[in-house]
Task: inverse folding
């Protein structure tokens, strides 16, 4: 092991299309039940994409004071709720902590489209003097970090990350580093996303990367030969990271340890040397045998190109053993969460280690010869203790995180 | 104007009802921030079509705000 301060995960909070709260989420994910549905938030009839991982059972008032609800967008509601559940899960009372040693590292890609649509309406229908006063502070991607910080009086080193599909994983990477390098002792990390509005969907459709699907049943098919793109999801995942010794001193229940974390850039959607390097660096910092990984939670975003490139990278990384390593993309169940991606898959890895249930890749029907991976496509029970999480942005920012049971 | 209307607007913003009384100061007692003050002014414009300046440096009580709304309504009459 390196002489870095060791980082463990002691709390998980989830607001996800598959369920609000840890138990509801894992019940659905571990049993492979899809949470992708026809969009109800707005009328999708005129849109080429009509399905998403939409949350229908979230009541912000269950988690957040009304004063915060009024002045924030939905993605911040999700983040505040997930942060509260994560802190409860970790049995951590921040008012008893040195809050100059507590940080918040969140990802968000799209900002607050819900409040923007309201702001546009006010501006063009009623005039500039009638635009709500929260437009400026609620829409922007750092709002989730900002309001969680305000809500808990957190004063430590904190950052927000906007990096396409790797937004959440970038937040994790730098949050982990802030503890390793001694800036923080406790970090709330993960992120939030709420793109399911008419305008938000329009912008994502413009990327050309969404699955043009009207049928929620098998819209999202990562690694399948006939995959047709990303299905968007929404929600928030917040993880509590702590320095190992202090977590032990307070008798925290520990889900697992972050053994290694690395970040690289390919600067080219078709390149994967950087992705191989980020996986290798995650191992290097941990000095564990490469053959020792039990499960890879892949980026597996479901585009033809990205899944193929990731499969090439895994093949190069693991050599002849690549076809033996189990690979999965539970995004197929709840959609791609961008800002909350990375943390959500890391949570899946921790829960798989805890319960021995592997989160499957649903809708995997036809293997792709270009992606010769051992995809976990059915329900599988297996005692596992080491998981690799990959995240990759459209243009090739890669994050790899290696986690282990203690 | 009775303070009930103001109370309704403040409760909508998430201010606890029992904290709202005639002599309560908007900033000192109710701890309103600048965006919440702007929202009250917008809501008064939406409801009564009146322009009330609440962003001045001086902290106002709920009763003083009611009086300002009454003044503005009176000067609105053609």
Result:
């Amino acid at each position: 092991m390196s002489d870095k301060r060791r980082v463990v995960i002691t709390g998980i909070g989830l607001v996800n299309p598959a369920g609000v709260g840890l138990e509801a989420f894992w019940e659905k994910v571990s049993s492979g039940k899809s949470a992708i549905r026809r969009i109800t938030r707005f009328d999708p009839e005129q849109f080429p994409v009509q399905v998403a991982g939409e949350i229908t059972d979230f009541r912000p008032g269950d988690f957040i004071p009304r004063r915060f609800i009024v002045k924030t967008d939905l993605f911040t509601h999700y983040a505040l709720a997930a942060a509260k559940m994560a802190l409860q899960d970790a049995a951590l009372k921040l008012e008893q902590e040195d809050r100059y040693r507590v940080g918040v590292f969140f990802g968000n890609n799209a900002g607050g489209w819900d409040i923007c649509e309201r702001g546009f309406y006010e501006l063009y229908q009623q005039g500039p003097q009638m635009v709500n006063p929260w437009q400026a502070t609620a829409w922007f991607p750092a709002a989730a970090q900002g309001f969680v910080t305000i809500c808990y009086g957190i004063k430590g080193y904190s950052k927000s990350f906007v990096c396409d599909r790797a937004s959440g994983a970038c937040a994790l990477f730098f949050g982990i580093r802030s503890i390793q390098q001694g800036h923080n002792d406790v970090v709330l990390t993960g992120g939030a996303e709420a793109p399911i509005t008419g305008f938000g969907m329009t912008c994502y459709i413009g990327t050309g990367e969404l699955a043009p699907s009207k049928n929620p049943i098998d819209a999202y098919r990562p690694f399948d030969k006939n995959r047709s793109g990303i299905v968007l999801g929404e929600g928030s995942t917040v993880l509590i990271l702590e320095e190992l010794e202090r977590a032990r001193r307070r008798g925290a229940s520990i889900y697992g340890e972050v053994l290694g974390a690395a970040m690289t850039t390919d600067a080219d959607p078709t390149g994967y040397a950087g992705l191989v390097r980020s996986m290798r660096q995650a191992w290097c910092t941990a000095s564990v045998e490469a053959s020792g990984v039990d499960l890879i939670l892949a980026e597996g975003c479901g585009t033809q190109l990205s899944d193929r490139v990731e499969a090439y990278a895994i093949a190069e990384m693991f050599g002849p053993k690549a076809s033996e390593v189990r690979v999965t993309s539970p995004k197929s169940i709840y959609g791609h969460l961008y800002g909350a991606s990375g943390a959500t898959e890391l949570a899946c890895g921790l829960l798989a280690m805890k319960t021995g249930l592997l989160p499957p890749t649903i809708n995997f029907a036809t293997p792709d010869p270009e992606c010769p991976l051992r995809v976990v496509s059915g329900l599988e029970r297996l005692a596992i203790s080491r998981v690799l999480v990959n995240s990759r942005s459209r243009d090739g920012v890669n994050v790899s995180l290696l986690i282990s049971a203690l | 104007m009775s303070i009930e209307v103001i109370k309704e607007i403040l409760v909508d913003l998430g201010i606890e009802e029992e904290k709202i009384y005639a002599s309560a100061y908007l900033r000192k007692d109710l701890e309103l921030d600048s965006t919440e003050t702007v929202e009250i002014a917008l809501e008064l414009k939406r409801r009564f079509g009146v322009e009330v300046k609440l962003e001045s440096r001086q902290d106002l009580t709920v009763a003083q705000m009611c009086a300002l709304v009454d003044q503005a309504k009176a000067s609105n009459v053609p």
